[in-house]
Amino acid sequence: MSESTFMGVERDRIDWSPRIDFSKCNDCMDCVKFCPHQVFEVDENAKPKLKVKNPNNCVVFCRACAKTCGPDAITFPDKTETTKMIKAIRKAEKAAEKEAEANE
Amino acid sequence: MSESICVLPCNGLDKCAGDLSRRVALELAQSAEVALICPVLLNQNRSRYEKALAAGDLTVIDGCNTRCASKLAGDLELAIKDKVNVSEVAKTLDIKLGVDIQENDDTRAVVQAVLAKVNSSAADQAESEFIEPEAVEYNSFSHGKFIFKVPQSNYFFNENDCWVTVSGNMARVGVSDYVQQNLSDILYVDPPEIGDEFEQFDDLGSIESSKAVFEIISPVSGTVVAVNSSLNDAPEQVNESPYEKGWLVEVKLRDFSEDQDLLHDCPAYFEFLQRKVAEIDV
Q1: ipTM of the assembly?
Q2: How far apart are CA A41 and CA A31, in angstroms?
Q3: Residues contacting A8, CB < 8 A, separation 6+
Q4: What is the CATH number of the domain that holds B181?
Q5: Using the beta-carbon criterion (under 8 Å), do A83 and B206 form an inter-chain contact?
Q6: pLDDT at residue B55, as a whole number
Q7: Which of A66, B70, B123, B245 could form a disulfide linkage to A74, CB 3.0–4.6 angstroms apart?
Q8: Interface of B with A in 55-74 (CB under 8 A)
Q9: Residue-level pLDDT at B280
């Protein structure tokens, strides 16, 4: 999964993953059961038991776990900002490619 | 039995949202057409409601996003005709429900809004302006016992496996063959509201099987013009014909050339999907 991308942009350059508000979380673990991508991890011995273990496994723009959350404890980054950032990275990369070609 | 609608409410009697589900269900049950279903008894002894369920369409009232009532219907493989979520409705009214049971203006307003939503489920929509393509040709590849189909042209995809196909400034949105096979039998389609404006990558409702809920992540920006109402009675069309009869939402496009920057054409999605399927099974 290390080389995973979203629309050609390396996944680890895109900041998209669930944020948990532990003042609302009730440890029901519905999000863990729901997410098929192993984004979350449960550690029975830790203080909040729930952890966002693999943020880059999270499908960019998917917010489905937040919808399964009864107490509404999960939020995501701003989608419009994220879209803008992805477009900017793609543009910069295309420009860099062109420049490299021109220099050959 | 003259009842034509069965109402299955949330049973969260210890919380505000559950209490409101109960109040909505009791209001609805005033009508002679409505049969109430107790979720606890249904779970314990389904045969008790077999007759009512056979005679009527099922409306589910969820209290919160734990969606116990929906999940119960899913587990029992009951087809859901209409569905409403009390907490979601409260959110649209900017009302915070909290945990404690309350009888006040706010909770009365939520009950009224939920009732209005249940009664208006057959929303008016304009005649479709979308011109359907004559015949869609497909490419396919197999992986294990699965065969995945992707149209050969005229469809565009985001990497969230949702497609758009365009005619003029109108378009239709749906999910790819991969999504429907992943979910298996689709029991319910939760459409967006007609008139809703949305951005690219906003959600456009969801589809649900007994396995999971899948959020429709919009490949384009625009306005909801129509929803595929034939899916109310036959959600399995999304399984049978994900790219044609199983379309989900018809939209008026805002800026498709801008949206296209973050979309794949058919050959590119075909390649993307091949890689994705290969990776998941490893």
Answers
A1: 0.84
A2: 10
A3: A90, A93
A4: 2.40.50.100
A5: no
A6: 86
A7: A66
A8: 64-67
A9: 74
**Joined tokens for residue B76:** 């029992």
Three-class SS state of B133: coil
Count of domains for chain A: 1
pLDDT at B121: 57
Chain B positions in Cβ-Cβ contact with residue A94 (cut-off 8 Å): none
Q: Which of B239, B99, B263 is nearest to B166 (CA)?
A: B263
Q: A104 CA to chain B: closest CA distance, Å?
A: 27
Which tens digit of pLDDT belongs to each residue from A75-88?
Answer: 999 999 999 999 99
Determine the residue type at A42.
V
Rounded percentage of chain A residues whose pLDDT exceeds 90: 69
Q: What's the burial of A1, exposed, middle or buried (CB within 10 Å: 0-12/13-18/19+)? A: exposed
Contact at CB, A62 and B261, closer than 8 angstroms:
no
Residue contact A68–B212, C-beta within 8 A: no
Q: What's the predicted TM-score (pTM) here?
A: 0.78
Find the domain containing B16 and state its range: 5-119
Residue B77 CA neighbour count, 13 Å, CB half: 3
| Whether B108 and B187 share a structural domain | no
CATH value at residue A83 = 3.30.70.20
Environment class of residue B75 by beta-carbon count within 10 Å: exposed (0-12), middle (13-18) or buried (19+)? exposed
Nearest-by-Cβ selection for A80 from B199, B212, B217: B199
Q: Is the pLDDT of residue B105 over 80?
A: yes
Select from B90, B119, B148 the last residue of a domain.
B119
Report yes or no: B121 and B259 within 8 Å, Cβ to Cβ: no
Q: How many domains does chain B have?
A: 2
B67 contacts in A (CB within 8 Å)?
68
How far apart CA B60 and CA B69 sit, in angstroms, is: 7
Chain B residues 119-158 within an 8 A CB cutoff of chain A: 158
Phi, psi of B167 (to 5 degrees): -135, 110
Q: Containing domain of residue A40, as a range? A: 5-103
Least CB–CB distance from B262: residue in A7, A30, A80: A7
